[in-house]
Request: fold
Amino acid sequence: MSIKDHPQDYKDLKRAVALLESPSLTAKLSGLLGSPIEGAVKALPEAVSKKINGAVTAALHASADAALRSLENQPKKPASTRLHKLYAATSGAVGGAFGFTALFLELPVSTTIMMRSVADVARSEGFDLQDFATQQACIEVFAMGGNSQADDATETGYYLTRSFTTQTMQQLAKELAAMAAKQGAGAASRLTPGQAGKWLAVLIEKVAGRFGVTISSKFAAQAVPVIGAFTGATINALFTDFYQDMARGHFTVKRLEDKYGYESIKSEYEAIVSKRLVG
Reply:
């Protein structure tokens, strides 16, 4: 069965490619502010950068559970994308109004809102929020920063990012296989809460490094005193919109992989990307 024999599915895949291979979030932020943001990120003191990385990791840990529990598990329910952007903008306005220090207090709130919006999109694509694989896929979205010509080759490309998260989990996969061998067939699909928590914690630690790069851009922009509450709200809305797009593309691809097979969709995805580059 070929996806090209199903026009709507092929159209969905092309839209997913357009979303996932879009300019990076840092590039979009630079466009919003009217000037490159990379220099401001590099100018952040090392102590601040370390604090940001720690705050990002803590925020992802806190948001994963809180966001998923706050949504009803109703696959195919339409996503409330505008509502989540409104929540994020409100959070950003508060952070912007009270300055740089308040951004660390605002980060867990805005990250939870973004995680909730990602899970909302996953649900709208028909995924079960109680499924551990769905929870893992929601966290993976935050490793996706989009493409930029200035990015290192290892940081770009949707399937390269997925390869990164897959490699991250290989050791735990071995542990899970050993557990399944001891407990019998099907054990791998029956993770205990402790095992699931350990698995997600390792993934979050790795994803946080990539998510922290984009959050540093946000901090650098909002640390400018004249930015104020309005731009803080706009930046948060931009971030939420971006990760909603990443989630829509990611879960569309995963839905199509379930239907047509991983290798088949990956091949068609890469063919579409090649055509875009030539065109």
Remarks:
- Residues 148-156 have pLDDT under 50 and may be disordered.
- DSSP finds twelve helices and no strands in the chain.
- Residues 228-260 form the longest helix (33 residues).
